[in-house]
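Retro notes, item 3 of 5
We never archived the inputs for the 2-oxoglutaric acid complex last cycle. Fixing that now. Sequence and ligand:
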Amino acid sequence: MTAAASSIPQSFSLLQTLVADFQRDGAVCIRGLFTPAQMELLRGGIDANLAHPSPRAKVASRSDDPGLFIEDFCNWQENEAYRRFIFETPLAMVAGRLMRSRHARLHHDHMLTKESGTRQRTPWHQDQPYYNIEGRQNCSFWIPVDPVPRESTLEFVAGSHLGPWLMPRSFMDSQAKWFPEGSLADLPDVEAHRERHRILGWALQPGDAVCFHMLTLHAAAGVSGAQRRRVFSVRFIGDDVTHAPRHWVTSPDFPGLQDELPAGAAMDHPLFPVLWQAESASQNGTAGSRFAASRITLRIGKNRGAEPHANGSRR
Ligand SMILES: O=C(O)CCC(=O)C(=O)O
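Structure as it came back at the time:
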């Protein structure tokens, strides 16, 4: 499989706009990043994962929910379709550019499926406080293999990645199972005061992706009708990210990692392979980049914002 999705070359200034938007807002939409064949591969990977969830899988909806919200983590080594999708598509290169990093390293994969009729909301939260990493150069992709209407899509509070770390809590019962109670400020009630925030969100088609910073506040509604929402997320880390072993079980958990990777060390470990490197300084965000030369389709999603996990489980 090749990385190329289209013969339409994209301009360097478009790339620069995308990177600037990511840096300013902490979330961007990229249209048509993946080919239909790549989507087919990923759909097969998700279906195989759903048929055989790993021991790390979690049901994230209540037993009386008419649908089902199921998640699974860290399956790229066992799921060949996931591995190929992560290693053979332009994901890592895009992540490297958005992070303004000289390299892009895989942190983990995360499957999030809401079956038809799922009422369960994903509450507003940041991701990084659940993780085992420090550092600002990071980027997560949220990649649906089914069409996602605006009302069911992932939403973001623009610019929130520039603010402080906020208290991670379990999604179902709001418990402080990670940082001790009182050690971080609590989240604002975004849902109750949506008008106070610039909320971004995009209706998506298979092939599109949203990319967001691990500190960007985000949330998603349930799904309605017969709609099914199968999503694959891939999380990347860049130059300044270091290991932050915790006294608690992170989400996802990397059991035993603290014995192999000291606190403050670069994430240089086979669990976190480097999947892209800038070829030279002149290619890291300046003219002549491999990104611009790759002729992939990068259509910046129009901001319709105004239209506008433990395993230390988050549940
Ligand atoms: O898919 C969802 O409902 C939530 C996604 C999310 O929180 C994430 O990808 O970090």
